[in-house]
Design brief:
By secondary structure, this protein is an alpha/beta fold. The protein is built from 13 helices and 10 strands. The chain has an 8-stranded mixed sheet, with helices on both faces. Strands 9-10 form a two-stranded antiparallel sheet.
Length: 371
């Protein structure tokens, strides 16, 4: 019975965190967003790998930005990469936009994304660099919000929150988007409230002079968690990592539970390697899972079922509240009846992260080691 009570207390902690995350997101979404005083020219670097679902739409949202002067540099490492055809179509759709393609297979360290960026960088003409994931769908005004966040002299790096966006609406993609929008996103805001300045790798914006001071992109070339290392190096210069007041969407394109599991396991093992203590404590966030554990340990006692109902309701309310605050469609999230399955999967990934360091990323087998 003591074990059941402890599991119920963990469930209460998870429910409390879900509600606190909802409140944090609502406050973030309601903040005033003054226009940037200065909008410097920006070079946006988009490292590509294959014709990912939604790639053309993602590039289109970037090219449609209302910003006075920016360029888009797309890069691939394989001359036969099907992403090249996508870039050509986008160039035809936006003939007035500066969109350049770099094809260069030169290797630079173990991280192929960083190698791609190193090859692309000489083509960038501007003093402000924005590195954005290939699958990132950006809102109107995205570049304006990045410029506003980078403006203070004490800011060396700007990053953004992102929600999950199912590529074609299938259920497995909604499960993946659920974990991003209702788990990662509010968790990142709560971490900020506690003083952390994590770099969230979907968007990374900095001045070229800052990049030169930390040793260039080459300093990231052998690290799987290049975003984390970039944040560490910038903070070591006495500069801040700022969070822009905008939310982009990352495309969840997995077609089955296996690919989704491997993708999320890479995230989990990388975070565990970088911050083992915080990662271990993060298991408390799965309130519905711990409530299910309490039901089992209490032999199905009525009070334990009540804990499960409350944890489930808190999790569902927080998720819907976050969707409303950010304007996310209901179809981007998992149905309420699937929340226990999503939490079982998340708790399983949390446990599996402690079982090894090997991860898969774009066909590579790498080690998520602490750096």
């Amino acid at each position: 019975m003591i074990a059941a009570v402890l599991a119920a207390l963990a469930a209460a902690a998870g429910a409390g965190q879900a509600l606190a995350g909802w409140r944090a997101v609502a406050r973030f979404a309601a903040r005033p967003r003054p226009a940037p005083a200065h909008r410097p020219p920006v070079s946006v670097l988009k490292p590509l790998h294959g014709d990912e679902p939604g790639l053309e739409a993602a590039l289109g949202t970037l090219c449609a930005q209302d910003y006075p002067r920016f360029e888009v540099i797309c890069g691939v490492q394989d001359p036969a990469d099907p992403a090249i055809a996508v870039v050509r179509r986008v160039q035809a759709r936006f003939p007035g936009r500066a969109i350049r393609l770099v094809v260069d297979p030169s290797p630079h360290g173990a991280n192929r994304k960083v190698a791609n960026l190193i090859n692309m960088l000489p083509s960038a003409r501007h003093a402000v660099l924005a590195i954005a994931d290939s699958d990132l769908v950006v809102p109107a005004g995205w570049l304006n919000r990045l410029a506003a966040a980078l403006a203070p002299s004490e800011v060396g790096l700007v990053t953004t929150l992102y929600a999950g966006r199912p590529a074609d609406g299938r259920l497995v993609q909604r499960l993946g988007a659920e974990a991003i929008s209702h788990g990662f996103l509010p968790g990142a805001l709560l971490a900020r409230a506690l003083g952390r300045q994590d770099c969230l790798g979907a968007t990374m914006v900095l001045r070229r002079a800052t990049l030169d001071r930390i040793g260039g992109l080459e300093a990231l070339a052998d690290h799987l968690a290049d975003d984390n290392i970039l944040g560490q190096l910038v903070r070591a210069q006495g500069l801040h990592v700022a969070l822009a007041d905008t939310v982009a969407e990352t495309t969840v394109a997995e077609s089955g539970l296996g690919p989704l599991w491997r993708h999320e396991l890479r995230w989990a093992r990388t975070i565990r390697a970088l911050a083992p203590g915080q990662f271990a404590a993060s298991g408390l966030q799965y309130g519905v899972f711990w409530a299910m554990v309490a039901v089992g340990l209490a032999d199905g006692a009525g009070w334990a079922w009540g804990v499960l109902a409350l944890a489930w309701a808190a999790r569902a309310a927080a998720g819907r509240g976050i969707d409303r605050a950010l304007g996310l469609p209901l179809a981007f999230s998992a149905p309420v009846w699937l929340l226990p399955a999503r939490e079982l999967m998340s708790a399983g990934l949390w446990l599996a992260a402690f079982a090894g360091n090997r991860v898969e990323w774009r066909g590579q087998r790498l080690s998520a080691r602490r750096v």
